[in-house]
Design goal:
The protein has about 160 residues and is an alpha+beta fold. It has a domain of about 110 residues: Sandwich (Immunoglobulin-like). The chain is about 10% helix and about 30% strand. Strands 1, 2, 3, 4, 5, 6, 7, 8 and 9 form a 9-stranded antiparallel β-sheet that branches.
Length: about 160
């Protein structure tokens, strides 16, 4: 009985290993797109939203059409929660010209777990975008790592589909 169980487990492990080794590129990997300011483009909402950290470490949200052209904010409600889970920082936004700007700067440090929540209007169902806010400069493209578009770090670890 023990031998049969071990044989079954070994066969199962071998099958899983072979399946992983035969990984093909017959699918699309989620590709991060950058907005017109070089920020991370959130495409799950219409119009799309660009998440950008400015020189004062405040977050700017710009809305863009399908051609990546900036459109004025409408009645969207945006909140960003980031940082340490035990004491997260929550950012609220006010309109400043053609963008929304956060009420305060992001916390010091780097690689903050970040949740961007966008509602089409007050009370509407939210769209959540989750990512790590890595503010290091990408070594390959002109963007910060949180908005990197060059896929230099793609190590074939399939992350759970976001949002």
């Amino acid at each position: 009985m023990k031998t049969k169980l071990l044989s079954t487990l070994a066969a199962l492990a071998l099958a899983c290993t072979l399946n992983a080794a035969e990984h093909k590129h017959d699918h699309d990997h989620e590709k991060i797109k950058a907005g017109p300011s070089g920020g991370r483009l959130i495409t799950e909402v219409e119009p799309h939203a660009e998440f950008f950290v400015n020189k004062e470490n405040k977050v700017e949200i710009r809305f863009v059409d399908d051609d990546n052209k900036i459109v004025p904010p409408g009645s969207q409600v945006v909140t960003v929660t980031l940082g340490d889970r035990s004491a997260p920082t929550k950012l609220a936004f006010t309109q400043d010209g053609n963008k929304l700007i956060s009420d305060k700067a992001i916390p010091s440090g780097n690689d903050h777990p970040t949740v961007v929540q966008i509602r089409a209007k007050e009370g509407a169902k939210p769209v959540n975008e989750k990512f790590n806010l890595n503010l290091e400069q990408c070594p390959t493209c002109k963007n910060k790592e949180y908005a990197c578009t060059c896929e230099h770090g793609h190590d074939h670890a399939h992350e759970e589909k976001k949002k």
